[in-house]
Amino acid sequence: MNAALAIIALATLGALALGLAARRGVRMTLEQWTVAGRGFGGLLVFLLTAGEIYTTFTFLGGSGWAYGRGAPTFYILAYGSLAYFMSYWLLPPIWRYAKRERLLSQPHFFAHKYESPWLGVLVAAVGVVALAPYLVLQFQGLGIIVSVASYGAISPTLAIWIGAATVTIYVMISGMHGVAWNAAVKDALILAVVVFLGVYLPLHYYGGFGAMFRAIDVAKPGFLAFKPTGQSVLWFQSTVLLTALGFFMWPHAFSAVLTSKREQSFRRNAALLPLYQLILLFAFFCGFAAIAQVPGLSGAQADQALLRLSIQTFDPWFVGVIGAAGVMTALVPGSIILISAATLLANDVLRPLRPELPDAAVGAAARALVPLIALLAIYFAIEGGQTLVALLLMGYAFVTQLFPALLYSLLPRNPMTKFGAAAGIVVGVAVVAFVTETKIGFAEMLPFLPARVGDVNVGFAALILNVVAAALVSLATRPAAIAAASLSSR
Amino acid sequence: MATLRWLAALPFLGILIGTAFVNQVEPLVLGMPFVLAWIVGWVVVGAAAMAIIYAFDPANAAAGDEADGERR
Questions:
Q1: Which residues pair with B24 in a beta bridge?
Q2: CB atoms within 10 A of CB A275
Q3: Which residues of B touch A87 (CB under 8 A)?
Q4: By mean pLDDT, which of A54-58, A291-295, A413-417, B30-34 is the weakest?
Q5: Where along chain A do the CATH 1.20.1730.10 domains lie?
Q6: Class of domain A3-388 as given by CATH
């Protein structure tokens, strides 16, 4: 066993121990397990809502896209910030309503607002479908980190199994309490590692940031700006808007919001989290630094750029520290996603179908589902094949379809009916699924539009169709319209 | 407060619309390609705008007292 592997193994055991220790003194009801009894203060809520920023997605995916695609990776910096600015007004009303009605989850929220348990089941199903690629992404990242940082001693497949088992065990036992302190450790570790690498690598190999970017610009003209077609400025605009709207539609982001004790935490974080987000720049710098130093990684291999360059640059023990930080960025979000998916299925699909079940049985079902969901994600992660960013964008395209119905539900007098909300969500998700499956772009589907329209993010176009469907069906099913129809038929 | 709220629109305009006009590498700003520096700049401006909005929002002042009460 080399030094790198020993350090990574130690970090994994540490995470497990911390996760299990967090259980002490807590009676684990479902509310404790999934939103930690709504008792977290400002710092933990900050870390949990910031959890999105430093997942394996940004660590490996952000640097991987900088390496493989160049400028398009900048979207990652933009969308989170815009989402946090919006959160100032979006999150407090959601939190207040959820607290008053003692809601545990996002489908719960929709079901209550629209007074339709079936809408809740639909929202839960969309949530699980969107979470799947997100969980796969974390496991896939885990496989990359451990196999590369162990210098090939552990295969990606074995790494995925070990990591998934760790998450599964502590999630089943400690739930959200287990995640919280690991989230704090993870953020401190990844912050130090990414900032160090992002400063050290460009200085070491190029003598400075400007020199590095000039060298890239000479070697690959056009790489550092958006392309005229394909991933153009229009792609950037539509993707940033889509993903910013979808940011808080993730079931686990919703749960993170519900863990808060006070609503002004969100308003303060709206100013702080965008700055925190800037640390992402250093992940980009790592990817850019790798371009000339570890050339030839293509396709999904680009996600290895940061780690390959680290191996080439540092001693094994420090590669181990980087690997340990990387493992934490996959374990923590992975466990949050697992808790969310299991809660969705038990509390928001099973409970409405079998209302007579006691709370304890639903809680037990949620925990029993954890290993099943993990197994499914392990399967897809081992199959692999897509870059981490592509996986996340797919999840985003799904989950953003919930945004219109949520936004309307916050209005004092909501013009959207439950049928309208359901129709919009179904249409949006169907379009995303169709386009993802057939890989047909908008240029082919709508040939009469100018060619540039093909650059628009597919999820964004689905969102527009979603709103149109929701509006039409809402008009047809308004209480007034139904009353009029029943009068005329009499 | 109501007028201050419009400050929050600035980063949206800068990032979503402005980026179309600055899609270029030169001049480098703080060593970064211009379009990247542009996005970073709006993130910082946006954060400052939110801090101002937060400071003048009466909802936070009231809530702050409550938090103090808890601490005591």
A1: none
A2: 17
A3: none
A4: A54-58
A5: 3-388
A6: mainly alpha
Task: Give the confidence band of A225 by pLDDT, cuts at 50, 70, 90.
Answer: confident
Helices (H), A384-455: 388-399, 403-409, 418-438, 442-445
For A140, the token pair is 């896939």
Q: Which residue has the tokens 């998934």?
A: A164
More confident residue, A23 or A410: A410
Section A362-376 average pLDDT = 86
Sequence length of chain A is: 490
Average pLDDT over chain A, rounded to whole? 83
- CA-to-CA distance for A149 and A319, rounded, in angstroms? 6
Contact A474, A417 (CB under 8 A): yes
Across the interface, of B8, B28, B53, the residue whose CB is closest to A213 is B28
pTM value is: 0.86
Tens digit of each residue's pLDDT (9 = 90 or more) over A435-484: 777 766 666 666 666 666 677 877 888 899 999 999 999 888 887 656 66
Answer whether B36 sits within 8 Å of A263, measured CB to CB: no
Interhelix angle A117-149/A359-383, nearest 10 degrees: 50
Question: Cα angle at A341 between A335 and A346, to 5 degrees?
Answer: 125
Question: What is the average per-residue pLDDT within A27-53?
Answer: 66
A212 and B31 within 8 Å at the Cβ level: the answer is yes
Q: Answer yes or no: do B16 and A237 touch at CB < 8 A.
A: yes
Contact check, Cβ <8 Å, A272/B19: no
| A308 vs A34: CA distance, rounded Å | 37
| Closest to A159 in 3D by CA, of A148, A169, A170 | A148
Interface size A-B, in CB pairs within 8 Å, comes to 113
Q: Residue A451's pLDDT is what?
A: 61
Distances (CA, A) of A354 to A102, A325, A347: 20, 42, 10
d(CA A9, CA A23): 22
Minimum Cα–Cα distance from A217: chain B residue: B25
Q: Which residue of B has its CA nearest to A261?
A: B67
Residues A85 and A270: beta-carbon distance below 8 Å: yes
Residues with Cβ < 8 Å from A324, sequence gap 6 or more? A7, A8, A10, A11, A12, A189
Bigger pLDDT: A411 vs A393: A411
Query: Residue A316 is encoded by which pair of tokens?
Result: 């094994």
Helices and strands in chain A, H and E counts:
24, 0
Residues near A447 by beta carbon (within 8 Å), at least 6 away in sequence = none
C-beta of residue B8 within 8 angstroms of C-beta of residue B49: yes
pLDDT at A307 over 70: yes
**Tokens at A88, concatenated:** 């100032």
Please check whether residue A331 is in contact with residue A312, taking contact to mean a CB–CB distance below 8 angstroms: no
Measured CB to CB, residues of chain A less than 8 Å from chain B are 71, 74, 77-78, 81-82, 84-85, 88, 208-214, 217, 224-226, 233, 236-237, 240-241, 262-264, 267-268, 270-272, 274-275, 277-278, 281, 284
Q: Indicate which of B10, B50, B53, B54 best probes the interface with A, i.e. most A CBs within 10 Å of its own CB.
A: B50
Note the ipTM here.
0.86
